[in-house]
Amino acid sequence: MGAYRVILLVTLGVYLLLKGIGFVYGVALPSSVVSMYVFFTFLVTVLIISVTDKGALSLTTPIIEFLYKEEKKKLRKVVFVVLPFVLAFIAYAFTKPSYEEPFTLRVVHPAPPRIVNAYDRNIELEKIKNPIRELTGDAYEEAVHDGGEIYFKNCFFCHGAKLDGKGHFAKGLNPAPLPFTGKDTIAQLEESYVFWRVVKGGEGLPEESAPWMSVMPVWEESLKEEEVWKVVTFIYEYTGNEPRRWEK
Amino acid sequence: MRHGVLKSIIVGALVLAAILVFIKLFIPEVTPAPPPKPYSIKDPGEMTIVDLLMLGESTFRGRGSCVRCHDAPGDRAPSLKDILAISIETVRSEEYKGKATDGWAYVLESLIEPDAYIVKGYGKEKSPMPKATRNLSDIEIKAVIAYLKKRSGLKVDLSEELK
Amino acid sequence: MGMTTLRIKKILFPLLFTAFLMPLLCSTAFASEGGVFTPRLWVWLFAQLHLYFAAFILSVPVFVLILELTGVIRKDKRFDRVAREFLAISVVTHIVTVILGVIFAAVVFSLYSNLSGYMYKAFSPTVKLYAAIIIIDIALLYLYYLLWSRLGSGRGKLLHLGIGLLLNLSGIAIMFIANAWTTFMMAPTGVDASGVVVDLWQAINNPLWHPMNLHRFVANIAFGGAIVAAYAAYRFLSAAREEERARYDWMGYIAAVVSILALLPLPFAGYWLTSEIYSYSQQMGITLMGGVFGWMFIAQAAVIGTLFLGANYYLWCGFERAKGGAVYRPYVKYIAIVLALCFLVWFTPHTPHLSSLELKEIGGRFHPLLAPLGLMPAKNIAVNIMILATFVSFLLFRRAVRSSSVSWAAIGKTIQAGILSAAVLNIIFLGVYYGYFADSVYKITSSIPQVLTTLFALISCSVIEFFIYRGGESVEHKWGGASERSQYALIVLAVSFTWLMGLMGFIRSAIRQHWHVYTVVRDVSADAFTPTISYAAKVVSIITLIFLAIIIVIFRISHLRRAGEDR
Asked: pLDDT tens digits, residue range C265-282?
């Protein structure tokens, strides 16, 4: 049985090593690749052992003893009854249709383009600033108030009265409208990013955000540039979020 | 007799079985795309902007085989994801030696004369990219550019694009 | 021997249980919309069968001639005898090849009359030439075979060798003509805008013609060698007498070495063909490497790995055939580990098969650790090192029965080891640096210095080896003592070679996709789609089975006939 123990140990060792690599790295190796590697490790180990006569003998003897020795009769009977069922189950497992949920990647916040063509000019998103933020005092307050008005005339049907993404139409949409409350949507984004998303809508999303393209309209067609900025400022003000900034 | 034939047959059959099992276990069942419909393009005079953009997209993904290299695994060609920014920046940069003066003219130039300017890291004196004129007609090249413009969020106008 | 001689009944019984795995193999339907036996299947079947036999009968005379020449130079009767036995097999298979060729032509002309009409119109002068050369070839073959003993010595032998050379030339001419037709279908040149062939020579001399000629020529030798080795293995396994065992052990050795030596340059011939396909049509090249066909290359990689493992296994088993060989036994596991590592890199897919959970976890289709292994530079490193490892096995295999008489043997061996390690390091450096860190233009061109490094190591080590063992005594050892396992390795080699050839032939042909003649004659039939991998694999397996069945019958006949002659 020595040969089989070696094979078992080596195969198991390689399996654990591969799992260990995945564990240390943080992203597990794909199971299809792991099983392929383990399978060939097993094969090569058998080959190495069977090169010599002695090794080959140590591989075949246990099988032949198992098959033909009088003492192993009971074991044999058990195995020969169970084995067909095991094999049948394997065959069944491979042939039965799978009900696994089809999975498609969809990036919710894809990398923005560096330049966006909107309002008939090329806008560099890295350089553009929110003009509303330069206002102070009453002018600023008024702009935010205007933004609120624009929001409730246009956005609230989907994004909701509380800006929580639970508007009237929200249930019918997939992907669902994003909430602005909470710390993981607009709080993570620069204002220029939000501006791009409003202006270009679902149609302007890059391919990695497909499938189920968002139904966010292209607001460039119905809102003025200034109005968009007002709305953007409003949703930050209303939810108490700060836009992400790279420098102070 | 030492059963030479039988042994040979069994070993041979085992090899075939092993190969088939390997394929069954480790190779996913991919169903290849059906052959494309025989190819025809509308006369430019009868085209709408939608026709042009659809022709552009199908050329970009199909006959033009652009996506085989651009944004495909293996980093064979520069990314076209941010083509608007890239083309503008390239034309502005000092290294650019081609004739184009604005971004889209540069894209057109790269399609019909890939060697005019070679993006750093993708070829030395010759670009690995084949000339688009090799298998694409004039209207198809225009359609691809219109599609790329649309994809970058530009407004495209039919008469403008067919010029 | 006792327990080592596995009695076949004992093995057969448990094997029956694997029949339960059959649903696993048959879970996808064989039939497409047009039923099981579509026109495409018929053409595929007969084309591939014809090709197998053609490849076999073209390659056998090549090494029959080499063996005969070796026999004359070394004045060793054994070579002559083995050469004659090879040729005898080839004579029977000639008839089968011609019959299959006629059936194939009939099938193509009746089922795809459009295409065959076009091809015939374009190539009719070469078709006539082809027919004429076949007749000459058969005549030469019979002359070569029947006059073997009559032209046995002196000037007669020279004349006989001359006939052998002519036979080979005519065989090569046949292959070149057929290759011109096939490659024209992939890379049509010399055609005008409406698709009519205007320049016949240009159509023949298309960009893929010579790469294909070389690739097929080398592959045919490797394939023919593998089949003959399997034949010897089969005779060895059924031999009752000691001298028969000795003869077939030796014959198997010669054929296996021919096959392995031809196998080593084959990947490079393949690169040349592939790069020409790329430069003819980028689209065709990328179709070849991506999508469905990309996965077929994973299957191909696994089978090529099996070939290398099988060949090495045969050599390793041979270490034991003389007492001195036992010294080299410990190296087996190191060579095996190197091979296995290369092998794993060799078939790691760039986009592995992922379950939906894994997709979510990895967040993309490429695993960050494995993706670099899936790219071409890693594969190039792997294949070059695999070739060198096989070469080391071969050197040790030879050394097992040789002893050196030169004083500097130890230094020579150290130099060899140095060259090999330097070569491996250089191959890895070139692959890693140019493949992953340098400008992408060098990605492909870096494979050339890698190949040169491999070639340099192979040649320089062979030269040193030759001088170390020149004049040395051959250690006493007996042929016929090979283990049955080593003979099984030869059969594995032959079967996987046959299968691989079928799959690669399918891939090469299928990258034309829905075109009969690429971009010129479109396939408008219902079978114009690309089949799935498992369908292709099953068809190739069935064709392989049919080929092997016919070959076994032929072997059986020639076996019985020889048995009758011997009596």
From this structure: 888 888 889 888 877 876
In angstroms, the separation between the Cα of residue B104 and the nearest Cα of chain A is 13
Q: Which of A36, A47, A92 sits opposite C336 (nearest CB)?
A: A47
| Minimal-distance CA residue of chain C relative to A100 | C356
Question: What CATH number corresponds to the domain at position B70?
Answer: 1.10.760.10
CATH no. for A115-239: 1.10.760.10
Higher pLDDT, B31 or C469: C469
Cα torsion B86, B90, B93, B99 to 10°: value is -160
Chain B residues touching C496 at Cβ < 8 A: 15, 19
How far are the Cα atoms of A56, A236, C379, C442, C457 from residue C450, in angstroms, in the given order?
37, 59, 12, 12, 11
What pLDDT is stored for residue C476 in this prediction? Answer: 64
pLDDT in tens, C232-245: 998 898 888 888 88
The ipTM, to two decimals, is 0.81
Chain C residues with CB inside 8 Å of A66's CB? none
Which stretch of A106-115, A122-131, A197-206, C149-158 has the lowest confidence by average pLDDT? A106-115
φ, ψ (nearest 5 deg) of residue A116: -120, 135
Query: pLDDT tens across C330-339, in order?
Result: 889 899 999 9
Enter the tokens of residue A132. Answer: 């509303």
**Size of the B and C interface in Cβ pairs below 8 Å:** 151
**B101 within some domain:** yes
Indicate yes or no: CB of C491 within 8 angstroms of CB of B26: no
Give the residues across from C517 on adjacent strands: C521
DSSP C395: H
Quick check: C21 and A90 CB within 8 A?
Answer: yes
Residue with the larger pLDDT of the pair B89 and C376:
B89
Residue B69 lies in a domain: yes
On whether the CB atoms of residues C277 and C518 are closer than 8 A, the answer is no
Interface subset of A 205-244, CB within 8 angstroms of B: 206
Domain that holds residue B134: 44-161
CATH 1.10.760.10 domain position(s) in chain A = 115-239
The pLDDT value recorded for residue C5 is 47
Residue B19 lies in a domain: no
- Say if residue A199 is exposed, middle or buried (CB neighbours under 10 Å; 0-12, 13-18, 19+): buried
Identify whether B75 is part of a domain: yes
Q: What is residue A150's predicted lDDT score, i.e. its pLDDT?
A: 94
Show which residues on chain B lie within 8 Å of chain A, measured between beta carbons.
24-26, 81-82, 84-85, 88-89, 152-155
- Count of structural domains within chain B: 1
Task: Find chains touching chain C: ≥3 CB pairs under 8 Å.
Answer: A, B
Is residue A90 within 8 angstroms of chain B, CB to CB?
A: no
The top-scoring range by mean pLDDT among B36-40, C72-76, C411-415 is: C411-415
